[in-house]
Design brief:
Helices cover about 40% and strands about 15% of the residues. It is built from twelve helices and eleven strands. The strands form two sheets. Strands 1-4-5-6-7-8-9-10 form an eight-stranded parallel β-barrel. Helix 5 packs across helix 6. About 5% of the residues have low confidence.
Length: about 375
Protein backbone atom coordinates (compact mmCIF):
# COMPACT_ATOMS: atom_id res chain seq x y z
CA UNK A 1 0.00 0.00 0.00
CA UNK A 2 1.37 3.40 -0.92
CA UNK A 3 2.09 6.06 1.68
CA UNK A 4 -0.83 8.12 0.35
CA UNK A 5 -3.27 5.24 0.66
CA UNK A 6 -2.09 4.47 4.17
CA UNK A 7 -2.54 8.13 5.10
CA UNK A 8 -6.06 8.22 3.64
CA UNK A 9 -6.99 4.95 5.37
CA UNK A 10 -5.68 6.24 8.70
CA UNK A 11 -7.59 9.51 8.25
CA UNK A 12 -10.80 7.67 7.39
CA UNK A 13 -10.37 5.44 10.45
CA UNK A 14 -9.87 8.44 12.75
CA UNK A 15 -12.95 10.14 11.31
CA UNK A 16 -14.96 6.97 11.97
CA UNK A 17 -13.72 6.86 15.56
CA UNK A 18 -14.66 10.51 16.10
CA UNK A 19 -18.13 9.91 14.59
CA UNK A 20 -18.74 6.82 16.71
CA UNK A 21 -17.55 8.63 19.84
CA UNK A 22 -19.93 11.49 19.13
CA UNK A 23 -22.78 9.10 18.43
CA UNK A 24 -22.13 7.20 21.66
CA UNK A 25 -22.00 10.47 23.60
CA UNK A 26 -25.29 11.62 22.04
CA UNK A 27 -27.05 8.32 22.73
CA UNK A 28 -25.74 8.19 26.30
CA UNK A 29 -26.79 11.76 26.96
CA UNK A 30 -30.32 11.01 25.81
CA UNK A 31 -30.64 7.48 27.14
CA UNK A 32 -33.41 6.46 29.51
CA UNK A 33 -33.37 3.51 31.84
CA UNK A 34 -36.51 2.11 30.23
CA UNK A 35 -35.47 0.94 26.78
CA UNK A 36 -39.15 0.44 25.94
CA UNK A 37 -40.22 3.93 26.95
CA UNK A 38 -42.92 5.43 24.75
CA UNK A 39 -41.95 7.87 22.02
CA UNK A 40 -43.46 10.77 23.97
CA UNK A 41 -41.59 9.78 27.13
CA UNK A 42 -38.28 9.56 25.26
CA UNK A 43 -38.98 12.95 23.71
CA UNK A 44 -39.78 14.52 27.07
CA UNK A 45 -36.59 13.18 28.61
CA UNK A 46 -34.42 14.49 25.79
CA UNK A 47 -36.22 17.83 25.87
CA UNK A 48 -35.82 18.18 29.63
CA UNK A 49 -32.09 18.19 28.96
CA UNK A 50 -32.37 20.56 26.04
CA UNK A 51 -34.59 23.09 27.80
CA UNK A 52 -32.41 23.09 30.93
CA UNK A 53 -29.78 24.89 28.84
CA UNK A 54 -32.26 27.75 28.36
CA UNK A 55 -33.55 28.03 31.92
CA UNK A 56 -35.38 26.28 34.73
CA UNK A 57 -39.06 25.37 34.57
CA UNK A 58 -41.09 26.51 37.56
CA UNK A 59 -43.48 24.07 39.21
CA UNK A 60 -46.16 24.02 41.91
CA UNK A 61 -47.77 21.10 43.75
CA UNK A 62 -51.51 20.53 43.16
CA UNK A 63 -51.67 23.88 41.38
CA UNK A 64 -54.87 23.30 39.40
CA UNK A 65 -56.83 21.56 42.15
CA UNK A 66 -56.95 24.20 44.89
CA UNK A 67 -55.28 27.28 46.33
CA UNK A 68 -55.66 29.72 49.18
CA UNK A 69 -59.41 30.00 49.89
CA UNK A 70 -60.59 28.13 46.77
CA UNK A 71 -60.94 24.56 45.50
CA UNK A 72 -61.82 22.88 42.19
CA UNK A 73 -62.56 26.01 40.19
CA UNK A 74 -61.97 25.27 36.47
CA UNK A 75 -59.03 27.20 35.06
CA UNK A 76 -58.04 28.53 38.48
CA UNK A 77 -54.45 28.64 39.75
CA UNK A 78 -52.84 30.85 42.39
CA UNK A 79 -49.75 31.16 40.19
CA UNK A 80 -51.86 32.12 37.20
CA UNK A 81 -53.86 34.59 39.29
CA UNK A 82 -50.61 36.42 40.12
CA UNK A 83 -48.60 36.30 36.88
CA UNK A 84 -51.18 35.52 34.21
CA UNK A 85 -50.05 32.01 33.26
CA UNK A 86 -49.74 28.54 34.69
CA UNK A 87 -46.56 26.92 35.98
CA UNK A 88 -44.61 24.69 33.59
CA UNK A 89 -44.47 21.76 36.03
CA UNK A 90 -47.29 20.35 38.17
CA UNK A 91 -46.80 18.04 41.15
CA UNK A 92 -49.32 15.37 42.22
CA UNK A 93 -49.50 12.45 44.66
CA UNK A 94 -50.72 8.84 44.49
CA UNK A 95 -51.09 8.13 48.20
CA UNK A 96 -54.29 6.19 49.02
CA UNK A 97 -54.36 4.50 45.60
CA UNK A 98 -53.25 1.41 47.53
CA UNK A 99 -56.59 1.37 49.39
CA UNK A 100 -58.85 1.98 46.38
CA UNK A 101 -59.72 5.36 47.83
CA UNK A 102 -61.66 7.80 45.70
CA UNK A 103 -59.38 10.64 46.85
CA UNK A 104 -55.63 10.97 47.15
CA UNK A 105 -53.84 12.04 50.34
CA UNK A 106 -54.58 15.77 49.88
CA UNK A 107 -58.27 15.15 49.20
CA UNK A 108 -58.13 15.48 45.41
CA UNK A 109 -60.32 12.85 43.69
CA UNK A 110 -58.16 10.48 41.65
CA UNK A 111 -60.44 10.91 38.65
CA UNK A 112 -60.20 14.70 38.84
CA UNK A 113 -56.43 14.44 39.26
CA UNK A 114 -56.27 12.37 36.06
CA UNK A 115 -58.16 15.15 34.27
CA UNK A 116 -55.71 17.73 35.58
CA UNK A 117 -52.79 15.63 34.32
CA UNK A 118 -54.45 15.55 30.90
CA UNK A 119 -54.94 19.31 30.97
CA UNK A 120 -51.27 19.89 31.83
CA UNK A 121 -50.19 17.59 29.00
CA UNK A 122 -52.51 19.32 26.53
CA UNK A 123 -51.05 22.71 27.40
CA UNK A 124 -47.47 21.43 27.03
CA UNK A 125 -46.57 21.20 30.71
CA UNK A 126 -44.92 18.48 32.78
CA UNK A 127 -46.49 16.23 35.43
CA UNK A 128 -44.59 14.70 38.34
CA UNK A 129 -45.85 12.26 40.99
CA UNK A 130 -44.78 11.45 44.53
CA UNK A 131 -46.29 8.56 46.54
CA UNK A 132 -46.69 8.86 50.30
CA UNK A 133 -47.75 5.25 50.56
CA UNK A 134 -48.63 3.50 53.80
CA UNK A 135 -46.45 0.79 55.31
CA UNK A 136 -46.96 -2.51 53.42
CA UNK A 137 -45.91 -4.55 56.47
CA UNK A 138 -48.37 -2.72 58.72
CA UNK A 139 -50.93 -1.00 56.43
CA UNK A 140 -52.48 1.01 59.27
CA UNK A 141 -49.24 2.96 59.56
CA UNK A 142 -48.72 5.96 57.29
CA UNK A 143 -45.52 7.02 55.56
CA UNK A 144 -44.70 9.15 58.61
CA UNK A 145 -45.18 6.39 61.19
CA UNK A 146 -41.59 5.45 61.85
CA UNK A 147 -40.89 1.75 61.94
CA UNK A 148 -37.47 0.17 61.71
CA UNK A 149 -36.65 -2.65 59.30
CA UNK A 150 -39.85 -2.37 57.27
CA UNK A 151 -38.01 -3.15 54.03
CA UNK A 152 -36.22 -6.18 55.48
CA UNK A 153 -39.50 -7.50 56.91
CA UNK A 154 -41.24 -6.85 53.59
CA UNK A 155 -38.91 -9.15 51.68
CA UNK A 156 -39.07 -11.79 54.42
CA UNK A 157 -42.85 -11.77 54.79
CA UNK A 158 -44.77 -13.35 51.89
CA UNK A 159 -48.08 -11.88 52.99
CA UNK A 160 -46.60 -8.38 53.17
CA UNK A 161 -44.97 -8.82 49.77
CA UNK A 162 -48.24 -9.94 48.20
CA UNK A 163 -49.83 -6.84 49.68
CA UNK A 164 -47.09 -4.58 48.32
CA UNK A 165 -47.38 -6.12 44.85
CA UNK A 166 -51.13 -5.51 44.92
CA UNK A 167 -50.43 -1.86 45.75
CA UNK A 168 -47.94 -1.61 42.91
CA UNK A 169 -50.45 -3.15 40.53
CA UNK A 170 -53.02 -0.49 41.45
CA UNK A 171 -50.43 2.25 41.01
CA UNK A 172 -49.38 0.81 37.65
CA UNK A 173 -52.99 0.74 36.45
CA UNK A 174 -53.48 4.36 37.49
CA UNK A 175 -50.22 5.58 35.93
CA UNK A 176 -51.03 3.84 32.65
CA UNK A 177 -54.54 5.31 32.66
CA UNK A 178 -53.20 8.82 31.96
CA UNK A 179 -53.98 9.12 28.26
CA UNK A 180 -53.53 11.88 25.72
CA UNK A 181 -56.02 12.78 22.96
CA UNK A 182 -54.77 10.03 20.66
CA UNK A 183 -54.72 7.35 23.33
CA UNK A 184 -51.01 7.76 23.99
CA UNK A 185 -49.73 7.30 27.55
CA UNK A 186 -48.89 10.67 29.10
CA UNK A 187 -45.25 10.82 30.27
CA UNK A 188 -44.85 11.26 34.02
CA UNK A 189 -41.89 11.94 36.31
CA UNK A 190 -42.22 9.67 39.36
CA UNK A 191 -40.29 10.00 42.64
CA UNK A 192 -40.34 6.72 44.57
CA UNK A 193 -39.34 6.76 48.25
CA UNK A 194 -38.27 10.40 48.29
CA UNK A 195 -36.46 12.34 51.06
CA UNK A 196 -34.81 9.12 52.19
CA UNK A 197 -31.73 10.91 53.58
CA UNK A 198 -34.04 11.96 56.39
CA UNK A 199 -35.74 9.55 58.79
CA UNK A 200 -39.35 10.76 58.90
CA UNK A 201 -40.63 8.13 56.44
CA UNK A 202 -40.49 4.35 57.01
CA UNK A 203 -38.06 4.08 54.07
CA UNK A 204 -35.77 6.76 55.52
CA UNK A 205 -32.11 6.47 56.45
CA UNK A 206 -32.73 5.73 60.11
CA UNK A 207 -35.00 2.77 59.38
CA UNK A 208 -33.17 0.76 56.71
CA UNK A 209 -29.71 0.04 55.36
CA UNK A 210 -28.45 1.41 52.01
CA UNK A 211 -28.65 -2.09 50.53
CA UNK A 212 -32.25 -2.51 51.67
CA UNK A 213 -33.27 0.84 50.19
CA UNK A 214 -31.63 0.02 46.86
CA UNK A 215 -33.30 -3.40 46.83
CA UNK A 216 -36.76 -1.87 47.34
CA UNK A 217 -36.18 0.79 44.66
CA UNK A 218 -35.00 -1.73 42.08
CA UNK A 219 -37.83 -4.13 42.87
CA UNK A 220 -40.36 -1.33 42.39
CA UNK A 221 -38.92 -0.16 39.07
CA UNK A 222 -38.64 -3.74 37.81
CA UNK A 223 -42.27 -4.36 38.76
CA UNK A 224 -43.50 -1.36 36.77
CA UNK A 225 -41.44 -2.51 33.78
CA UNK A 226 -42.93 -5.99 34.09
CA UNK A 227 -46.41 -4.45 34.08
CA UNK A 228 -45.47 -2.55 30.90
CA UNK A 229 -45.64 0.90 32.43
CA UNK A 230 -43.45 2.65 29.88
CA UNK A 231 -44.44 6.28 30.38
CA UNK A 232 -42.30 6.96 33.46
CA UNK A 233 -39.16 8.99 34.12
CA UNK A 234 -37.69 7.89 37.45
CA UNK A 235 -36.40 10.59 39.81
CA UNK A 236 -34.01 9.84 42.68
CA UNK A 237 -34.96 12.54 45.16
CA UNK A 238 -33.13 12.93 48.48
CA UNK A 239 -33.60 15.49 51.21
CA UNK A 240 -30.73 17.72 52.33
CA UNK A 241 -27.31 16.10 51.92
CA UNK A 242 -23.85 17.03 53.12
CA UNK A 243 -21.60 15.77 50.32
CA UNK A 244 -21.43 13.83 47.08
CA UNK A 245 -20.82 10.60 48.99
CA UNK A 246 -23.79 11.34 51.22
CA UNK A 247 -26.00 11.89 48.18
CA UNK A 248 -24.84 8.72 46.44
CA UNK A 249 -24.96 6.44 49.50
CA UNK A 250 -28.32 4.92 48.52
CA UNK A 251 -28.21 5.57 44.78
CA UNK A 252 -29.90 2.62 43.03
CA UNK A 253 -27.59 2.73 39.99
CA UNK A 254 -27.55 4.42 36.59
CA UNK A 255 -29.80 1.71 35.14
CA UNK A 256 -32.51 2.59 37.66
CA UNK A 257 -32.46 6.41 37.72
CA UNK A 258 -33.29 8.99 35.03
CA UNK A 259 -33.28 12.18 37.06
CA UNK A 260 -31.30 13.23 40.13
CA UNK A 261 -32.88 15.72 42.50
CA UNK A 262 -33.39 16.75 46.09
CA UNK A 263 -35.98 18.38 48.35
CA UNK A 264 -35.01 21.34 50.51
CA UNK A 265 -37.15 23.77 52.48
CA UNK A 266 -36.17 27.18 53.76
CA UNK A 267 -36.72 27.41 57.50
CA UNK A 268 -34.86 30.58 58.44
CA UNK A 269 -33.75 31.30 61.95
CA UNK A 270 -34.47 34.81 63.24
CA UNK A 271 -30.83 34.98 64.34
CA UNK A 272 -29.47 34.15 60.88
CA UNK A 273 -28.92 37.40 58.99
CA UNK A 274 -26.71 35.80 56.33
CA UNK A 275 -27.66 34.05 53.11
CA UNK A 276 -26.61 30.67 54.48
CA UNK A 277 -29.55 28.86 52.92
CA UNK A 278 -28.67 30.21 49.49
CA UNK A 279 -25.02 29.22 49.82
CA UNK A 280 -25.71 25.71 51.12
CA UNK A 281 -28.47 24.98 48.62
CA UNK A 282 -26.46 26.28 45.68
CA UNK A 283 -23.59 24.04 46.79
CA UNK A 284 -25.94 21.05 46.68
CA UNK A 285 -27.13 22.12 43.23
CA UNK A 286 -23.55 22.22 41.98
CA UNK A 287 -22.96 18.73 43.37
CA UNK A 288 -26.07 17.62 41.53
CA UNK A 289 -24.86 19.28 38.32
CA UNK A 290 -21.58 17.37 38.55
CA UNK A 291 -23.38 14.05 39.08
CA UNK A 292 -25.86 14.75 36.32
CA UNK A 293 -23.23 15.70 33.79
CA UNK A 294 -21.03 12.70 34.59
CA UNK A 295 -23.89 10.21 34.38
CA UNK A 296 -25.96 11.76 31.62
CA UNK A 297 -28.90 12.52 33.93
CA UNK A 298 -31.33 15.40 34.26
CA UNK A 299 -31.19 17.27 37.59
CA UNK A 300 -33.86 19.25 39.47
CA UNK A 301 -34.94 20.70 42.81
CA UNK A 302 -37.93 18.42 43.26
CA UNK A 303 -39.48 20.25 46.26
CA UNK A 304 -38.67 23.53 47.95
CA UNK A 305 -40.22 26.67 49.37
CA UNK A 306 -40.70 28.94 52.35
CA UNK A 307 -43.99 28.40 54.14
CA UNK A 308 -46.24 31.50 54.08
CA UNK A 309 -43.46 33.40 52.22
CA UNK A 310 -43.24 36.20 54.82
CA UNK A 311 -40.20 37.73 53.08
CA UNK A 312 -41.38 40.22 50.46
CA UNK A 313 -38.32 39.67 48.24
CA UNK A 314 -37.81 35.95 48.81
CA UNK A 315 -38.19 35.00 45.15
CA UNK A 316 -35.45 37.23 43.75
CA UNK A 317 -33.21 37.32 46.82
CA UNK A 318 -33.31 33.65 47.76
CA UNK A 319 -34.71 31.30 45.11
CA UNK A 320 -33.38 33.04 41.99
CA UNK A 321 -29.69 32.95 43.05
CA UNK A 322 -30.09 29.23 43.76
CA UNK A 323 -31.60 28.25 40.39
CA UNK A 324 -30.11 30.78 37.97
CA UNK A 325 -27.44 29.41 35.59
CA UNK A 326 -27.64 26.07 37.41
CA UNK A 327 -28.64 23.78 34.55
CA UNK A 328 -31.65 22.60 36.54
CA UNK A 329 -34.53 21.08 34.64
CA UNK A 330 -37.15 22.35 37.08
CA UNK A 331 -37.78 23.67 40.56
CA UNK A 332 -41.08 22.90 42.28
CA UNK A 333 -42.57 24.66 45.32
CA UNK A 334 -44.99 22.85 47.59
CA UNK A 335 -48.76 23.16 47.68
CA UNK A 336 -51.12 25.96 48.74
CA UNK A 337 -53.16 23.77 51.05
CA UNK A 338 -54.83 26.34 53.26
CA UNK A 339 -54.48 29.97 54.43
CA UNK A 340 -51.83 28.99 56.99
CA UNK A 341 -49.97 26.52 54.76
CA UNK A 342 -48.89 27.73 51.32
CA UNK A 343 -45.68 28.08 49.28
CA UNK A 344 -46.70 30.05 46.18
CA UNK A 345 -48.12 33.58 46.34
CA UNK A 346 -51.70 34.54 45.61
CA UNK A 347 -53.06 38.01 44.73
CA UNK A 348 -52.34 40.41 47.57
CA UNK A 349 -49.83 38.14 49.31
CA UNK A 350 -46.76 40.03 50.53
CA UNK A 351 -44.38 38.43 48.01
CA UNK A 352 -46.71 38.55 44.99
CA UNK A 353 -45.04 41.55 43.32
CA UNK A 354 -41.60 40.04 43.82
CA UNK A 355 -42.86 36.77 42.34
CA UNK A 356 -43.74 38.72 39.19
CA UNK A 357 -40.15 39.98 39.05
CA UNK A 358 -38.87 36.44 39.59
CA UNK A 359 -40.95 34.95 36.78
CA UNK A 360 -40.00 37.83 34.48
CA UNK A 361 -36.39 36.64 34.52
CA UNK A 362 -35.66 35.07 31.10
CA UNK A 363 -34.34 31.92 32.77
CA UNK A 364 -37.59 31.19 34.63
CA UNK A 365 -39.85 29.18 32.36
CA UNK A 366 -43.60 29.01 32.88
CA UNK A 367 -46.32 27.26 30.87
CA UNK A 368 -46.10 29.37 27.71
CA UNK A 369 -42.38 28.73 27.28
CA UNK A 370 -42.83 25.06 28.08
CA UNK A 371 -45.54 24.83 25.44
CA UNK A 372 -43.33 26.62 22.90
CA UNK A 373 -40.57 24.10 23.62
CA UNK A 374 -42.78 21.22 22.32
CA UNK A 375 -41.53 18.90 25.04
CA UNK A 376 -43.27 15.82 23.68
CA UNK A 377 -41.86 16.00 20.16
CA UNK A 378 -38.52 14.32 19.31
CA UNK A 379 -35.35 16.36 19.53
CA UNK A 380 -33.83 16.85 16.08
CA UNK A 381 -30.09 16.21 16.25
CA UNK A 382 -27.92 18.89 14.63
Amino acid sequence: MSTLLRHLARRAFMMLVVWLTGLTSYLTANAQIDTKATAETKALYANLKRVSKQGVMFGHQDDLAYGVNWKYEPGRSDVRDVVGEYPAVFGWDMARIEFDSLNQIDGVPFEKQRQYVQQVYAQGGVNTFSWHLNNPVDPLKTSWDKQDSTIRHLFDDRKAMRRYKSWLKKAATYLKSMKGPNGEAIPLIVRPFHEHTGSWFWWGRGHCSPAEYVKLWRFTVDYFRKKKVHNLIYAYSTDKFSSRDDYMERYPGDDYVDLVGFDIYHRPSPKDTTNRFVIETRTMVETLRSIGQERGKVWAITETGLELIPSANWWTNTLLPIVKDAGLSYVLVWRNGRPNHYYAPYPGQVSAENFKAFTADPQILLQKKAQAATLYKPVVAN
